[in-house]
Amino acid sequence: MSELPGDLQYTTDHEWLRREDDGNVTVGITDHAQSALGDLVYVELPEVNQEVESGGDMAVVESVKAASDVYAPIGGTVVAVNEALTDDPEAINNDPYGEGWIVKLEPSGDEGELLTPDAYQALLDELES
Amino acid sequence: MPFIPHTDDDTRDMLEAIGAESIDELFDEIPAELKIDALDGIPEAMSEMEISRLMRERAAMDGAPLCFIGAGAYEHHIPQAVWDIATRGEYYSAYTPYQAEASQGTLQTVYEYQSMITELTGLDVSNASLYDGASGLAEAALMAVRSNRKAKSRQVLLAPGVSPTYVKVATAIAGSQGLTFDYLAMDRSSGNLDFDSLDENAEPVAVVVQQPTFLGTLEDVDRITDWAHARGAFVIAIANPTSLAVLKAPGHWGEQGADIACGDGQPLGVPLSSGGPYFGYMTCKQKHVRQMPGRIIGRTTDLEGKPGFTLTLQAREQHIRRSKATSNICTNQGLMVTAATIYMSLLGNDGLSAVARQSAGNTARLVAGLTAIDGIERLFDGPAFHEAALRLDRPVAPVLEALAARDILGGYDLGADFPDLGNALLVCATETKTEADIDCYVEAMQEIFTASLAESA
Known about the structure:
The structure holds two protein chains of two kinds.
Chain A: E1 9-10, E2 15-19, E3 25-29, H1 31-37, E4 40-44, E5 51-52, E6 57-63, E7 67-71, E8 74-81, H2 84-87, H3 91-94, E9 103-111, H4 117-128
Antiparallel strand pairs in A: 1-2, 2-3, 3-9, 4-6, 5-8, 6-7, 8-9
Chain B: H1 8-18, H2 48-62, E1 66-67, H3 80-86, H4 104-121, E2 125-126, H5 133-147, E3 155-158, H6 164-174, E4 180-183, E5 206-211, H7 221-230, E6 234-239, E7 260-264, E8 280-284, E9 297-301, E10 307-311, H8 318-321, H9 334-371, E11 376-378, E12 387-392, H10 396-405, E13 408-409, E14 412-413, E15 424-428, H11 435-456
Parallel strand pairs in B: 1-13, 3-4, 3-5, 5-6, 6-7
Antiparallel strand pairs in B: 2-8, 7-8, 9-10, 11-12, 12-15, 14-15
Helix pairs in contact in B: 3-9, 4-9, 5-6, 9-11
């Protein structure tokens, strides 16, 4: 059973999104995603100021057995990337919703399809059944 | 003899297991209009006896001329042991098996190859090889676009001495992905880059420098490298591996070194043959390794702590990354790489350096002899490695024909690739040429020049 904070929004691609007080959003991958990928060995981050569309490629997380794209859950401009992941990609495995954040975006208004915690939990239940 | 191990029963069982009627059914997804029934231009199959005879007869047509042509592929002495070992059953396969549990010997060979090539080029990481030097340039340019994320453009600038053949191949492969390849201006006295012509507002994604140049000259690679880096561009070095025994390694060019090096590995133990198979090498700085194409073998330890070898960083590759892989290259030229590894280990640093020095010395001797003839002079000033461009006072093609009639392949006619250079001939004398060979060429050339003077008089 993977951890699922109630104050976040989720995507069908197993990303999470947190609305910050300053209007920006923080994005990472879920506990389920990190667990499925296994030990991460590399994270390819976007450039700050890069613009992304909802559903577009934003980053790549690579584990010992797979590499997977991280899609932008909403459109916006990259305002910060978690540089610490360059040296410590396993932060995503250890703390996917905290130290393992990947990107902060300034939303452009291009909202993608987002899930509530309950809806995401239902998706996980479906996958596990 | 069939080389496919499945019997008809095996095939039937497998089809049954997946619920398919026939093998053709597995390819249903391909629209019928894209399929062809027959290959009209391909002749009937031949038996081993027939094909061996045909090839022997064709090879005999080559004769045994004295070869003074370089221009990208070079005749070097290959110690007998190289191909004796490379063609042992353990190595001799068109396919390179990579399963770590079954192929430790092959993997270690490739690992040793990678170690030697990184040492030669002064860079950190090598892949397990590419098809040839020309496709290596295409892969290097595509890699630069992926890796140099600060650059906005897809323009690749070329020093004037980059092989025109390489540029044609790179354009064919990478042009459809929006990359453009543009030559920088040549300084006509040196044959090298004209620094005065450089546009200080250029924003290329990469600058390609070939050293020694296709025309045999030596560029100021440090200055070009620093200029490119100041413009935010990657530096892609193309280098003849033999020359790296005596010239500065690309990893040490300028303040920061070249970012990627590539080139043709043919001089390292692969015989001249009608266009191949040769192999390409490619190395880069550690920080760009995630964008490197091709296989990389790594050294590791097994569960019992013993050293072992395995594919590493596979998440770049097509079997994992599918359409987003760095390249579709995988198996490539394993057998040629095996030969090159044996060649380099037999020669060592001193041996390769001796090959380089003797080749440079022989070419200098040849150039001195030829330019003593009235009507032949060097096209460019400055130092050369083992190749030099000459200016003739008459068209090159008839001269080469007259030499060929005397069983001498006199060089490469630069007219088609560099029409601006006039009657220009590129000559090369590797360590395989004796003083007598060189004198023979010079005397033949002298006679041809004297004879045609007599004709025109």
